[in-house]
Structures are given as C-alpha cells and as structure tokens.
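Human:
Focus on the backbone:
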Amino acid sequence: MNNHRPTIEQVAARAGVGRGTVSRVINDSGAVSERARQAVLRAIDELGYVPNRAASALAGHRTRTVALVMSETDERRFEQPYFGQIVGGISAAAEAAGLALTLRLTQSDAERADLADQLRAQRVDGVLMISLVCEDPLPARLEGYGMPTVLGGRPCGLDVVPTSYVDADNRDGARRATEYLVGRDRRRIATIAGPQDTTAGIDRLAGYREALAGRPERVAYGDFSVSGGMVAMRRLLDADPLLDAVFAASDNMALGALWALQERGLRVPDDVAVVGFEDALVTSQAQPALTTVHQPTAAMGRRMIELLLDRLRGAPTADAPVICDTSLLVRESA
C-alpha cells in the first residue's frame, strides 16, 4: 500500500494542467481559467492533497480561520440532507484553500446577537452563514464590524444588509416544477410551502404562484421536515380530497407527503403526482422515486468559500450575488 502523501505533480497530472497552474490555484494568484481551476480543485479533492502553504492570498496578519454559522435546532440539522451536502462543499473548498473551519451553532436571537462579538474577539478572517432566517441581526453586526460575511441563501432586506450571498434560483425552480405539473394536465395542484421567515420558503411559494397564473391555489405550510410534510399533506387532502398534484418546497416534505398519501390509500402518481425540491440523495431511493428540482448544493458550498476569498482579496466583483441554476429531474412520482 502506498502511504506517501500526494504531490503537486500528481495533482497536475490528474487535472491535466501544468504544475504552475496548480500552484496558482492553491495560492489564489495569477490568471487561471474557471475550467482549469475546477479541474485542479477536483483533483485535490480526489487525491486528498494538502497544500504545504496555507492560502498565501490571505497573507498578512490573518488567522486563516473561517467561522461557519448554522442557525438551526439540533433535530433539523441532522434530519435535513441539505446541511450535510453544503457543509461538505464548504469543508472541501476550505481545506483546498488552506483555511481552518470552525463551526458555530445558534438557536436564538440572543445567541446570534452575542456571536458577532465572540467572532470579533476570536479574530476569524470571515464568516459563512447558512439556514438564515429573516430579521437575523448577525449579518448586519458582522458587516458593521468590517468582518467579511457570505450567506448561503438570499437574505431578507437586502437593501438594508449589503452582504454577499450564494443561492439557488428558488423561484425559477419552483415555477418549472409547477409548470411541469400543469403540462401533465394536473388540474388541482397544491403546494407544501416552506417557512415564510426564510427566503427559500418565500421564493419557492412565489414560483408556484407564478406558474399557476391565476388558477386556484391550495397552500399548506411545513418546516422543511418529513413530519411537517406529512401534516401539511393531510391538511391539503382534508381541504380538497380531489387534488391531483402537489409541489413540496423540499424533498423531506415531499417524502412526508408520499407517506401521507399512502396512508390515505392514494396512488402516486396515478391519483396524485408529487414533486420535491433539492435532489437529496434519498429521493432516488424513495418509493416511488421522487421527481424533484435539482440544486447544486455542494457546489454552492464551494462557491461560498470562493466568494469569501474574493472579498478578503478585495476583488471588485466580490459583492455580486451568485445565483445557481436549477433543473427538473423527472422520475417516477410525477
């Protein structure tokens, strides 16, 4: 068995580029095409290469430490596949850049308000935030301290909190999913919407309404959990036993909807078609396999690190939001 650590030459060979290109990607210096940069990052990840020098682009008096803040309860952190995928992308990109990642968990407004002072005292170079809720005081406080911050998701009140962010095109993805159901001649299309204190919940509901174009709405609300999807699906069926399709704003809620439909003896998709949002790993193994909107969750995490590095370098485009395209994956449930 070969116990030698991978070399920069091996990374270059795997990526199909020169040694100098790998060095420029690692050190974040010099012009490198996006295609070459992605090839190098993939090779680093596949080989488990650890650069000898840590993110020289951050040279100076920096700690080379980045905080990842998650605003969620313990139950939802472990239940939702989204968190594992985006944290995996963030972690891989941070390691490739030679950054140390520290995880901070918050559950209350008081904890989030205090955390800004704690992170400032720890002198982290920047902050990444995921699972943001509206009216969260932390982004504004961090930016007020001059601490570069990147959000995973469009913030509420963007005109008030000028923070960089990476997000999926939630509204367009939800619109496509609902338009697909309309095109399949479904006449009574419901939605299980996400929490309306999150922009993902708000935008996906807006996309559903846009696609209906004045047709009757059937809306129940969930919390992005399987149990929340089950409860919401039962409410929808109680209100309209003849509904024939449902768009759920997350795959977890779509799975809950599948269980609730089976509980009522309804067939999917014969009686009721179901579409989710996210493309979590478990969706292809559901019974039936779940039609869903794919969002590039791990890639979004990697892009958050890249955007934070841009901000630390003072790149002129660092404040521009990054919106990732979504696509509809048609499987058996619709």
